[in-house]
Protein backbone atom coordinates (compact mmCIF):
# COMPACT_ATOMS: atom_id res chain seq x y z
CA UNK A 1 0.00 0.00 0.00
CA UNK A 2 1.48 3.33 -0.99
CA UNK A 3 0.48 6.24 1.22
CA UNK A 4 -0.29 9.53 -0.48
CA UNK A 5 1.15 12.61 1.11
CA UNK A 6 -0.40 15.82 -0.12
CA UNK A 7 1.71 18.85 0.81
CA UNK A 8 -0.05 21.58 2.72
CA UNK A 9 0.12 25.20 1.65
CA UNK A 10 2.98 27.51 2.77
CA UNK A 11 2.57 28.70 6.35
CA UNK A 12 4.05 30.42 9.37
CA UNK A 13 3.61 28.40 12.56
CA UNK A 14 4.49 30.12 15.82
CA UNK A 15 4.92 27.88 18.86
CA UNK A 16 4.45 29.94 22.02
CA UNK A 17 6.14 27.85 24.70
CA UNK A 18 8.48 26.48 22.01
CA UNK A 19 11.09 25.44 24.59
CA UNK A 20 8.60 23.63 26.85
CA UNK A 21 7.99 19.96 27.47
CA UNK A 22 5.02 19.59 25.11
CA UNK A 23 6.82 21.37 22.26
CA UNK A 24 9.92 19.20 22.65
CA UNK A 25 8.18 15.87 23.17
CA UNK A 26 5.27 16.17 20.76
CA UNK A 27 4.97 19.27 18.56
CA UNK A 28 8.51 19.54 17.15
CA UNK A 29 8.97 15.79 16.56
CA UNK A 30 5.56 15.72 14.82
CA UNK A 31 6.58 18.60 12.55
CA UNK A 32 9.91 16.95 11.75
CA UNK A 33 8.13 13.75 10.72
CA UNK A 34 5.70 15.63 8.47
CA UNK A 35 8.67 17.43 6.94
CA UNK A 36 10.45 14.11 6.40
CA UNK A 37 7.37 12.74 4.65
CA UNK A 38 7.34 15.70 2.26
CA UNK A 39 4.14 17.23 3.59
CA UNK A 40 5.62 20.62 4.48
CA UNK A 41 6.39 22.82 1.47
CA UNK A 42 9.67 24.72 1.17
CA UNK A 43 8.24 27.92 2.58
CA UNK A 44 6.57 26.34 5.57
CA UNK A 45 8.27 28.02 8.54
CA UNK A 46 8.28 27.31 12.27
CA UNK A 47 9.04 30.05 14.78
CA UNK A 48 9.65 29.14 18.41
CA UNK A 49 8.63 31.85 20.87
CA UNK A 50 9.40 31.50 24.56
CA UNK A 51 10.86 33.28 27.53
CA UNK A 52 14.41 31.91 27.25
CA UNK A 53 16.93 34.38 25.92
CA UNK A 54 18.59 32.70 22.92
CA UNK A 55 19.04 33.21 19.20
CA UNK A 56 17.76 31.14 16.29
CA UNK A 57 20.96 29.03 16.26
CA UNK A 58 20.50 28.20 19.94
CA UNK A 59 16.88 27.23 19.39
CA UNK A 60 17.81 25.04 16.41
CA UNK A 61 20.06 23.12 18.78
CA UNK A 62 17.09 22.66 21.18
CA UNK A 63 14.94 21.45 18.27
CA UNK A 64 17.64 19.06 17.02
CA UNK A 65 17.99 17.57 20.51
CA UNK A 66 14.23 17.13 20.80
CA UNK A 67 14.05 15.36 17.44
CA UNK A 68 16.98 13.09 18.31
CA UNK A 69 15.43 12.25 21.65
CA UNK A 70 11.79 11.77 20.70
CA UNK A 71 11.79 10.50 17.11
CA UNK A 72 12.57 6.81 16.56
CA UNK A 73 16.21 6.47 15.46
CA UNK A 74 15.30 4.92 12.09
CA UNK A 75 13.52 8.12 11.11
CA UNK A 76 16.03 10.54 12.54
CA UNK A 77 18.16 11.13 9.46
CA UNK A 78 20.90 13.80 9.77
CA UNK A 79 20.29 15.20 6.26
CA UNK A 80 16.57 15.50 6.78
CA UNK A 81 17.09 17.02 10.19
CA UNK A 82 19.51 19.62 8.79
CA UNK A 83 16.93 20.62 6.15
CA UNK A 84 14.19 20.74 8.79
CA UNK A 85 16.29 23.07 10.94
CA UNK A 86 16.46 25.54 8.04
CA UNK A 87 12.77 26.17 8.62
CA UNK A 88 13.27 27.03 12.27
CA UNK A 89 13.47 30.52 13.70
CA UNK A 90 13.17 31.86 17.25
CA UNK A 91 11.97 34.97 19.05
CA UNK A 92 12.50 35.52 22.78
CA UNK A 93 9.19 36.85 23.95
CA UNK A 94 7.35 37.79 27.11
CA UNK A 95 3.69 36.86 26.90
CA UNK A 96 2.76 39.32 29.61
CA UNK A 97 5.09 42.18 28.62
CA UNK A 98 6.41 43.97 25.54
CA UNK A 99 9.63 42.06 24.87
CA UNK A 100 9.83 40.33 21.48
CA UNK A 101 6.47 41.29 19.99
CA UNK A 102 7.92 43.78 17.50
CA UNK A 103 10.45 41.14 16.35
CA UNK A 104 7.73 38.60 15.88
CA UNK A 105 5.57 41.06 13.91
CA UNK A 106 8.47 41.71 11.53
CA UNK A 107 9.00 38.05 10.81
CA UNK A 108 5.41 37.13 9.98
CA UNK A 109 4.19 36.90 6.40
CA UNK A 110 0.60 38.14 6.67
CA UNK A 111 -0.66 36.67 3.37
CA UNK A 112 0.14 33.11 4.32
CA UNK A 113 -1.78 30.66 6.48
CA UNK A 114 -0.79 31.40 10.07
CA UNK A 115 -1.01 29.11 13.06
CA UNK A 116 -0.26 30.15 16.63
CA UNK A 117 0.20 27.20 18.95
CA UNK A 118 -0.46 28.26 22.55
CA UNK A 119 1.75 25.62 24.19
CA UNK A 120 1.77 27.51 27.48
CA UNK A 121 -0.43 27.41 30.58
CA UNK A 122 -4.03 28.65 30.07
CA UNK A 123 -3.33 31.64 32.33
CA UNK A 124 -1.38 33.13 29.39
CA UNK A 125 -4.01 32.56 26.66
CA UNK A 126 -5.60 35.97 27.19
CA UNK A 127 -2.25 37.80 27.14
CA UNK A 128 -1.18 36.05 23.95
CA UNK A 129 -4.48 36.69 22.15
CA UNK A 130 -4.44 40.32 23.23
CA UNK A 131 -0.86 40.96 22.07
CA UNK A 132 -1.31 39.15 18.75
CA UNK A 133 -4.16 41.57 18.15
CA UNK A 134 -2.46 44.68 19.53
CA UNK A 135 0.69 44.17 17.43
CA UNK A 136 -1.40 43.32 14.36
CA UNK A 137 0.43 40.00 14.05
CA UNK A 138 -2.56 37.78 13.47
CA UNK A 139 -3.78 38.19 9.90
CA UNK A 140 -7.21 37.25 8.57
CA UNK A 141 -6.05 33.66 8.03
CA UNK A 142 -4.73 33.22 11.57
CA UNK A 143 -5.64 30.15 13.62
CA UNK A 144 -4.84 29.48 17.24
CA UNK A 145 -4.29 26.08 18.80
CA UNK A 146 -4.98 25.54 22.49
CA UNK A 147 -4.23 22.54 24.65
CA UNK A 148 -5.95 20.82 27.49
CA UNK A 149 -6.80 21.61 30.20
CA UNK A 150 -9.42 23.90 28.71
CA UNK A 151 -10.70 25.18 32.03
CA UNK A 152 -11.12 23.55 35.40
CA UNK A 153 -14.91 23.75 35.46
CA UNK A 154 -17.73 25.35 33.49
CA UNK A 155 -17.10 28.86 34.82
CA UNK A 156 -13.39 28.86 33.94
CA UNK A 157 -14.00 27.24 30.52
CA UNK A 158 -16.59 29.92 29.75
CA UNK A 159 -14.16 32.62 30.84
CA UNK A 160 -11.45 31.14 28.57
CA UNK A 161 -13.85 30.94 25.64
CA UNK A 162 -14.88 34.55 26.23
CA UNK A 163 -11.23 35.67 26.41
CA UNK A 164 -10.34 34.00 23.12
CA UNK A 165 -13.56 35.24 21.49
CA UNK A 166 -12.45 38.86 22.09
CA UNK A 167 -9.93 38.50 19.27
CA UNK A 168 -10.68 35.30 17.37
CA UNK A 169 -13.76 33.81 15.75
CA UNK A 170 -14.76 30.26 16.63
CA UNK A 171 -13.62 29.04 13.19
CA UNK A 172 -10.09 30.23 14.09
CA UNK A 173 -9.88 28.35 17.41
CA UNK A 174 -8.54 24.78 17.45
CA UNK A 175 -9.00 23.09 20.84
CA UNK A 176 -6.87 19.95 20.80
CA UNK A 177 -7.90 16.62 22.23
CA UNK A 178 -5.17 14.42 20.86
CA UNK A 179 -7.34 11.31 21.26
CA UNK A 180 -9.35 12.54 18.30
CA UNK A 181 -6.21 12.51 16.16
CA UNK A 182 -5.64 8.80 16.69
CA UNK A 183 -5.97 6.64 13.61
CA UNK A 184 -8.33 4.15 15.25
CA UNK A 185 -10.66 6.86 16.48
CA UNK A 186 -11.16 8.10 12.96
CA UNK A 187 -11.47 4.53 11.80
CA UNK A 188 -14.33 4.17 14.22
CA UNK A 189 -16.23 6.71 12.15
CA UNK A 190 -15.23 4.94 8.93
CA UNK A 191 -16.45 1.61 10.32
CA UNK A 192 -19.72 3.04 11.61
CA UNK A 193 -20.63 5.26 8.68
CA UNK A 194 -18.82 3.63 5.77
CA UNK A 195 -20.40 0.18 6.13
CA UNK A 196 -23.91 -1.17 6.11
CA UNK A 197 -22.96 -3.94 8.52
CA UNK A 198 -22.76 -2.11 11.86
CA UNK A 199 -25.04 0.90 11.84
CA UNK A 200 -28.38 -1.00 11.75
CA UNK A 201 -27.27 -2.87 14.89
CA UNK A 202 -25.85 0.22 16.60
CA UNK A 203 -28.61 0.75 19.17
CA UNK A 204 -30.07 -0.40 22.46
CA UNK A 205 -31.99 -3.20 20.80
CA UNK A 206 -28.78 -5.02 19.84
CA UNK A 207 -26.02 -3.54 22.00
CA UNK A 208 -25.92 -4.69 25.62
CA UNK A 209 -23.40 -2.12 26.82
CA UNK A 210 -20.25 -0.20 25.90
CA UNK A 211 -17.00 -0.08 27.91
CA UNK A 212 -14.35 2.57 27.55
CA UNK A 213 -11.05 2.00 29.36
CA UNK A 214 -8.02 4.28 29.46
CA UNK A 215 -5.50 2.71 31.82
CA UNK A 216 -2.02 3.99 32.60
CA UNK A 217 0.79 2.30 34.47
CA UNK A 218 2.45 5.56 35.53
CA UNK A 219 1.51 7.49 38.65
CA UNK A 220 1.31 11.25 38.98
CA UNK A 221 4.92 11.62 40.10
CA UNK A 222 6.31 15.03 39.24
CA UNK A 223 2.89 16.44 38.36
CA UNK A 224 1.35 15.69 41.77
CA UNK A 225 0.58 19.27 42.77
CA UNK A 226 -1.17 20.02 39.45
CA UNK A 227 -3.00 16.69 39.32
CA UNK A 228 -4.26 16.96 42.87
CA UNK A 229 -6.36 19.98 41.85
CA UNK A 230 -7.74 18.04 38.92
CA UNK A 231 -8.14 14.26 39.34
CA UNK A 232 -9.16 11.56 36.87
CA UNK A 233 -12.63 13.00 36.27
CA UNK A 234 -11.41 16.41 35.14
CA UNK A 235 -8.10 15.28 33.65
CA UNK A 236 -9.39 12.36 31.56
CA UNK A 237 -13.17 11.83 31.61
CA UNK A 238 -14.27 15.39 30.82
CA UNK A 239 -12.23 15.38 27.62
CA UNK A 240 -10.74 12.14 26.28
CA UNK A 241 -13.30 9.58 27.49
CA UNK A 242 -16.17 11.94 26.76
CA UNK A 243 -14.98 12.41 23.17
CA UNK A 244 -14.73 8.66 22.65
CA UNK A 245 -18.20 8.18 24.10
CA UNK A 246 -19.53 10.82 21.70
CA UNK A 247 -18.09 9.08 18.64
CA UNK A 248 -19.70 5.80 19.67
CA UNK A 249 -23.05 7.28 20.65
CA UNK A 250 -23.61 10.05 18.09
CA UNK A 251 -26.11 9.95 15.27
CA UNK A 252 -24.72 9.83 11.73
CA UNK A 253 -23.83 13.39 10.71
CA UNK A 254 -25.09 14.44 7.30
CA UNK A 255 -21.53 15.05 6.14
CA UNK A 256 -18.02 14.44 7.43
CA UNK A 257 -17.61 18.14 8.02
CA UNK A 258 -16.61 20.03 11.17
CA UNK A 259 -19.92 21.47 12.30
CA UNK A 260 -22.00 18.50 11.16
CA UNK A 261 -19.85 16.15 13.27
CA UNK A 262 -19.60 18.52 16.24
CA UNK A 263 -23.35 19.20 16.29
CA UNK A 264 -23.97 15.47 16.70
CA UNK A 265 -21.35 15.12 19.44
CA UNK A 266 -22.87 18.04 21.32
CA UNK A 267 -26.31 16.35 21.29
CA UNK A 268 -24.78 13.30 22.97
CA UNK A 269 -23.14 15.36 25.72
CA UNK A 270 -26.38 17.18 26.36
CA UNK A 271 -28.19 13.83 26.66
CA UNK A 272 -25.88 12.56 29.43
CA UNK A 273 -27.71 11.92 32.68
CA UNK A 274 -26.42 12.80 36.14
CA UNK A 275 -24.57 9.82 37.64
CA UNK A 276 -26.17 8.17 40.69
CA UNK A 277 -24.08 7.76 43.86
CA UNK A 278 -23.89 3.97 43.46
CA UNK A 279 -22.82 4.23 39.82
CA UNK A 280 -19.49 5.84 40.50
CA UNK A 281 -16.27 4.51 42.05
CA UNK A 282 -13.31 6.73 42.84
CA UNK A 283 -9.95 5.39 43.95
CA UNK A 284 -6.42 6.35 44.96
CA UNK A 285 -3.43 4.07 44.37
CA UNK A 286 -1.49 2.78 47.33
CA UNK A 287 2.27 2.45 47.61
CA UNK A 288 3.61 -0.42 45.49
CA UNK A 289 6.87 -2.25 45.11
CA UNK A 290 9.24 0.73 45.09
CA UNK A 291 6.51 3.20 44.09
CA UNK A 292 4.93 5.89 46.27
CA UNK A 293 1.25 6.11 47.15
CA UNK A 294 -0.97 8.69 45.45
CA UNK A 295 -1.03 10.84 48.58
CA UNK A 296 2.77 10.81 48.77
CA UNK A 297 3.06 11.68 45.07
CA UNK A 298 0.54 14.47 45.51
CA UNK A 299 2.27 15.64 48.69
CA UNK A 300 -1.12 15.91 50.32
CA UNK A 301 -1.79 13.40 53.10
CA UNK A 302 -5.50 14.35 53.23
CA UNK A 303 -6.10 14.42 49.48
CA UNK A 304 -9.58 13.44 48.33
CA UNK A 305 -8.64 13.60 44.65
CA UNK A 306 -9.15 10.42 42.63
CA UNK A 307 -6.39 8.80 40.57
CA UNK A 308 -8.96 6.26 39.32
CA UNK A 309 -12.60 6.58 38.39
CA UNK A 310 -15.22 4.20 37.05
CA UNK A 311 -18.69 5.38 36.10
CA UNK A 312 -21.86 3.96 34.66
CA UNK A 313 -23.22 6.56 32.30
CA UNK A 314 -26.61 6.79 30.63
CA UNK A 315 -27.29 8.60 27.37
CA UNK A 316 -30.94 9.62 27.51
CA UNK A 317 -32.24 9.28 23.97
CA UNK A 318 -34.14 6.76 21.86
CA UNK A 319 -31.04 5.06 20.52
CA UNK A 320 -29.38 4.35 23.87
CA UNK A 321 -32.15 4.07 26.44
CA UNK A 322 -31.27 1.03 28.59
CA UNK A 323 -27.77 0.54 27.16
CA UNK A 324 -25.21 1.83 29.68
CA UNK A 325 -21.73 3.12 28.95
CA UNK A 326 -19.16 2.06 31.54
CA UNK A 327 -16.13 4.32 31.67
CA UNK A 328 -12.95 3.74 33.67
CA UNK A 329 -9.60 5.41 33.76
CA UNK A 330 -6.78 5.35 36.23
CA UNK A 331 -3.13 5.65 36.97
CA UNK A 332 -0.70 3.06 38.30
CA UNK A 333 -2.77 0.25 36.85
CA UNK A 334 -1.69 -3.17 35.62
CA UNK A 335 -1.35 -2.25 31.96
CA UNK A 336 -1.14 0.76 29.69
CA UNK A 337 -4.12 0.28 27.49
CA UNK A 338 -6.89 2.29 25.87
CA UNK A 339 -9.82 0.56 24.25
CA UNK A 340 -13.51 0.75 23.56
CA UNK A 341 -15.57 -2.43 23.71
CA UNK A 342 -19.01 -2.65 22.17
CA UNK A 343 -20.71 -5.71 23.59
CA UNK A 344 -23.68 -6.97 21.59
CA UNK A 345 -26.62 -8.82 23.11
CA UNK A 346 -26.96 -12.58 23.16
CA UNK A 347 -29.05 -14.00 20.32
CA UNK A 348 -32.69 -13.96 21.45
CA UNK A 349 -32.98 -17.73 21.32
CA UNK A 350 -30.27 -20.33 21.17
CA UNK A 351 -30.81 -23.38 19.03
CA UNK A 352 -27.69 -24.98 20.50
CA UNK A 353 -27.38 -26.84 23.75
CA UNK A 354 -26.51 -24.74 26.77
CA UNK A 355 -22.88 -25.71 27.26
CA UNK A 356 -21.73 -25.48 23.65
CA UNK A 357 -19.73 -22.28 24.25
CA UNK A 358 -21.81 -19.69 22.48
CA UNK A 359 -21.13 -16.10 23.52
CA UNK A 360 -22.15 -12.57 22.57
CA UNK A 361 -20.30 -10.70 19.83
CA UNK A 362 -17.85 -8.04 20.86
CA UNK A 363 -16.31 -5.27 18.81
CA UNK A 364 -13.10 -4.04 20.45
CA UNK A 365 -11.50 -0.86 19.21
CA UNK A 366 -7.93 -0.58 20.48
CA UNK A 367 -6.33 2.84 20.67
CA UNK A 368 -3.15 1.58 22.29
CA UNK A 369 -1.17 -0.55 22.13
CA UNK A 370 -1.51 -2.17 18.66
CA UNK A 371 -4.07 0.24 17.19
CA UNK A 372 -6.75 -1.79 15.49
CA UNK A 373 -10.11 -3.46 15.88
CA UNK A 374 -11.34 -6.97 16.38
CA UNK A 375 -14.78 -8.44 16.26
CA UNK A 376 -15.40 -11.71 18.05
CA UNK A 377 -17.82 -14.03 16.34
CA UNK A 378 -19.06 -17.47 17.26
CA UNK A 379 -18.22 -20.29 14.88
CA UNK A 380 -18.16 -24.05 15.00
CA UNK A 381 -15.03 -25.56 16.41
CA UNK A 382 -13.56 -27.61 13.58
CA UNK A 383 -13.61 -31.39 13.88
CA UNK A 384 -15.95 -34.33 14.16
CA UNK A 385 -18.39 -34.94 16.98
CA UNK A 386 -21.11 -32.72 18.32
CA UNK A 387 -21.69 -29.05 17.71
CA UNK A 388 -19.07 -27.27 19.79
CA UNK A 389 -18.89 -23.52 19.42
CA UNK A 390 -15.90 -21.28 19.76
CA UNK A 391 -15.44 -17.50 19.74
CA UNK A 392 -12.80 -16.25 17.38
CA UNK A 393 -11.68 -12.73 16.56
CA UNK A 394 -12.09 -11.35 13.08
CA UNK A 395 -8.92 -9.38 13.54
CA UNK A 396 -8.63 -6.06 11.78
CA UNK A 397 -5.14 -5.24 12.99
CA UNK A 398 -4.08 -2.71 10.40
CA UNK A 399 -0.69 -4.30 9.81
CA UNK A 400 -2.16 -7.63 8.77
CA UNK A 401 -5.01 -6.27 6.72
CA UNK A 402 -3.19 -3.50 4.90
CA UNK A 403 0.48 -4.42 5.03
CA UNK A 404 3.27 -3.32 7.33
CA UNK A 405 3.29 0.21 5.92
CA UNK A 406 -0.17 0.74 7.33
CA UNK A 407 1.09 0.46 10.90
CA UNK A 408 3.41 3.32 10.23
CA UNK A 409 0.58 5.78 10.78
CA UNK A 410 1.30 9.35 11.81
CA UNK A 411 1.07 10.23 15.47
CA UNK A 412 -2.06 12.13 16.52
CA UNK A 413 -0.11 15.39 16.76
CA UNK A 414 1.19 15.04 13.20
CA UNK A 415 -2.32 14.72 11.84
CA UNK A 416 -3.82 17.42 14.02
CA UNK A 417 -1.17 20.06 13.28
CA UNK A 418 -1.55 19.45 9.55
CA UNK A 419 -5.33 19.79 9.98
CA UNK A 420 -4.77 23.20 11.57
CA UNK A 421 -2.72 24.31 8.55
CA UNK A 422 -5.38 22.91 6.22
CA UNK A 423 -8.07 24.72 8.22
CA UNK A 424 -10.04 21.55 9.03
CA UNK A 425 -11.71 21.67 12.47
CA UNK A 426 -13.47 18.29 12.33
CA UNK A 427 -11.17 16.68 14.91
CA UNK A 428 -11.12 19.66 17.28
CA UNK A 429 -13.58 20.54 20.02
CA UNK A 430 -15.93 23.44 19.59
CA UNK A 431 -16.46 25.92 22.44
CA UNK A 432 -20.05 24.84 23.15
CA UNK A 433 -18.99 21.17 23.23
CA UNK A 434 -16.35 21.88 25.87
CA UNK A 435 -18.79 23.90 27.94
CA UNK A 436 -21.45 21.17 27.76
CA UNK A 437 -18.86 18.58 28.85
CA UNK A 438 -17.93 20.75 31.84
CA UNK A 439 -21.57 21.34 32.77
CA UNK A 440 -22.08 17.57 33.08
CA UNK A 441 -18.72 17.06 34.84
CA UNK A 442 -19.38 19.84 37.36
CA UNK A 443 -22.67 18.26 38.30
CA UNK A 444 -21.08 14.86 38.91
CA UNK A 445 -18.24 16.38 40.95
CA UNK A 446 -20.62 18.58 42.98
CA UNK A 447 -22.75 15.54 43.82
CA UNK A 448 -19.83 13.54 45.26
CA UNK A 449 -18.54 16.57 47.10
CA UNK A 450 -21.98 17.12 48.65
CA UNK A 451 -21.98 13.48 49.79
CA UNK A 452 -18.55 14.04 51.35
CA UNK A 453 -17.17 10.93 49.65
CA UNK A 454 -13.55 9.89 49.85
CA UNK A 455 -11.81 7.78 47.21
CA UNK A 456 -11.17 4.14 48.13
CA UNK A 457 -7.59 2.80 48.07
CA UNK A 458 -6.44 0.36 45.35
CA UNK A 459 -3.33 -1.68 44.90
CA UNK A 460 -0.64 -0.30 42.57
CA UNK A 461 -0.39 -2.45 39.43
CA UNK A 462 -3.97 -3.72 39.76
CA UNK A 463 -7.15 -3.21 37.74
CA UNK A 464 -8.34 -0.53 40.18
CA UNK A 465 -10.53 -0.85 43.26
CA UNK A 466 -12.60 -3.97 43.87
CA UNK A 467 -15.68 -1.72 43.87
CA UNK A 468 -15.15 -1.00 40.15
CA UNK A 469 -15.43 -4.72 39.42
CA UNK A 470 -18.57 -4.89 41.53
CA UNK A 471 -20.06 -1.99 39.55
CA UNK A 472 -20.15 -4.35 36.57
CA UNK A 473 -20.78 -7.64 38.40
CA UNK A 474 -23.92 -6.20 39.91
CA UNK A 475 -25.30 -5.87 36.39
CA UNK A 476 -24.07 -9.39 35.50
CA UNK A 477 -21.38 -7.90 33.28
CA UNK A 478 -17.62 -7.68 33.52
CA UNK A 479 -14.78 -5.54 32.30
CA UNK A 480 -12.60 -6.95 29.56
CA UNK A 481 -9.18 -8.09 30.77
CA UNK A 482 -6.56 -5.38 31.08
CA UNK A 483 -3.86 -6.75 28.79
CA UNK A 484 -1.04 -5.12 26.97
P1 LIG B 1 6.37 23.84 30.22
O1 LIG B 1 6.35 24.47 31.57
O2 LIG B 1 7.34 22.73 29.98
O3 LIG B 1 6.72 24.98 29.13
C1 LIG B 1 6.15 26.24 29.20
C2 LIG B 1 6.65 27.09 28.04
O4 LIG B 1 5.99 28.35 28.13
C3 LIG B 1 8.14 27.39 28.04
O5 LIG B 1 8.60 27.38 26.71
C4 LIG B 1 8.23 28.80 28.60
O6 LIG B 1 9.33 29.56 28.10
C5 LIG B 1 6.94 29.40 28.06
N1 LIG B 1 6.48 30.50 28.90
C6 LIG B 1 6.07 30.46 30.18
N2 LIG B 1 5.75 31.71 30.62
C7 LIG B 1 5.96 32.54 29.57
C8 LIG B 1 5.81 33.94 29.37
N3 LIG B 1 5.38 34.74 30.34
N4 LIG B 1 6.10 34.42 28.16
C9 LIG B 1 6.53 33.63 27.15
N5 LIG B 1 6.69 32.31 27.27
C10 LIG B 1 6.41 31.77 28.47
O7 LIG B 1 4.89 23.43 29.90
P2 LIG B 1 4.38 22.24 28.93
O8 LIG B 1 4.40 20.95 29.67
O9 LIG B 1 5.09 22.31 27.62
O10 LIG B 1 2.83 22.60 28.75
C11 LIG B 1 2.35 23.64 27.93
C12 LIG B 1 0.82 23.58 27.89
O11 LIG B 1 0.40 22.38 27.29
C13 LIG B 1 0.18 23.62 29.28
O12 LIG B 1 -1.04 24.31 29.19
C14 LIG B 1 -0.09 22.16 29.57
O13 LIG B 1 -1.16 21.99 30.45
C15 LIG B 1 -0.44 21.67 28.19
N6 LIG B 1 -0.21 20.23 28.00
C16 LIG B 1 1.03 19.70 28.17
C17 LIG B 1 1.23 18.34 27.96
C18 LIG B 1 2.60 17.72 28.11
O14 LIG B 1 2.71 16.54 27.80
N7 LIG B 1 3.61 18.45 28.53
C19 LIG B 1 0.15 17.52 27.57
C20 LIG B 1 -1.10 18.10 27.38
C21 LIG B 1 -1.26 19.45 27.60
Describe the structure.
This protein has helices at residues 21-36, 56-70, 78-85, 101-107, 125-134, 154-165, 183-193, 224-228, 231-249, 258-270, 294-297, 398-402, 412-422, 431-451, 466-473, and strands spanning 11-16, 45-50, 88-92, 113-118, 142-146, 173-175, 207-215, 280-285, 308-313, 325-330, 337-344, 362-368, 372-380, 389-395, 456-458. Strands 14-13-12-11-7-10-9-8-15 form a nine-stranded mixed beta sheet, sandwiched between helices. Strands 3-2-1-4-5-6 form a six-stranded parallel beta sheet, with helices on both faces. It has 484 residues and is α/β, with parallel strands linked by helices. The chain starts with 10 loop residues before the first strand and ends in an 11-residue tail after the last helix. The chain has two domains: 11-147, Rossmann fold, CATH 3.40.50.720; 180-409 and 431-473, Dihydrodipicolinate Reductase, domain 2 (2-Layer Sandwich), CATH 3.30.360. α6 packs antiparallel against α14 and α9 (231-249) crosses α10. Bound molecules: nicotinamide-adenine-dinucleotide. Nicotinamide-adenine-dinucleotide is lined by residues 17-23, 25, 50-52, 93-96, 119-122, 124, 147-149.
Amino acid sequence: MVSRVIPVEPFDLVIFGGTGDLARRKILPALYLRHRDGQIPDDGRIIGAARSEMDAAGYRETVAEAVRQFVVPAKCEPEQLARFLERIDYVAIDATGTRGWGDLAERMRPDLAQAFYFSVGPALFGDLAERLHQHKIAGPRARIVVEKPFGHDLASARALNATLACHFDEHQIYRIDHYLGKETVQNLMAVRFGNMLFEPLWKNQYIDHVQITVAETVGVEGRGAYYDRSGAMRDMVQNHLMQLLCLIAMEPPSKFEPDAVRDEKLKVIRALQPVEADEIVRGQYQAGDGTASYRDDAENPDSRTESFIALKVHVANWRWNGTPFYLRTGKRMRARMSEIVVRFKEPPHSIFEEDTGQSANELAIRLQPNEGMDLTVTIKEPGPGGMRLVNVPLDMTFAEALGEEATDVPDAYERLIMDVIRGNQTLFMRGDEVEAAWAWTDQVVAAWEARGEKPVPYEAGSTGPEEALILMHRDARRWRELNT
